[in-house]
Fold this sequence. Notes:
Elements: H1 2-28, H2 33-45, H3 49-52, H4 58-63, H5 66-77, E1 80-93, E2 96-113, E3 116-132, E4 135-138, H6 143-152, H7 156-159, E5 166-171, E6 174-177
Antiparallel strand pairs: 1-2, 2-3, 3-4, 3-5, 5-6
Amino acid sequence: MKKLIFLSATVIVCSALNIMYGAAQSDNQPKDARAAVNKFFSLLKSRSYPALYEFLPSDLQRQITREQLSLSLRRLDSFILIERIEIGRVQQRGDFAVVDTTIYGKLKKPAMINGEEIKEGRVAAQQFLFRESGQWKVATADNRTQSYFLKRNAEFSKQFQITQPRFEFKQKDKWAVLGRPPKLER
Length: 186
């Protein structure tokens, strides 16, 4: 009888672990582009840098190690505190997507621009995503990565409305555009 109870308890515990593992796996693998962007920025904000590596396309993973990515993001974190993200329009066609985002942050050390101290800013930018091996990958690490992605996927920019990033900072409680946005190569 004790063996039967032990066996039943073992089966129940193993089943529970499998269910929890399956739930954790599905949480780590977002089902749509919006969820992938949310998960990516949630990991970025919580400084879970090694986990962000899984969102990089395999081409980029061959160029940078998990440790290099973490180090680079730690350096960025020493300057900027990412506060929140707003997700706007999602354009999705098959295995490709473009997600409009606005990312808000604060400078850890305020900067002087035109004689005024700047503490916070935001960037309106599109996140390019594609499915690789059934998982959404974020292809917008920087302008170089975006340009590389657009060159390799010429049809991508024809399928979606692509906009340039817009950088703004708060000046006298109003948002002001910071310089000219960088031009993306197509």
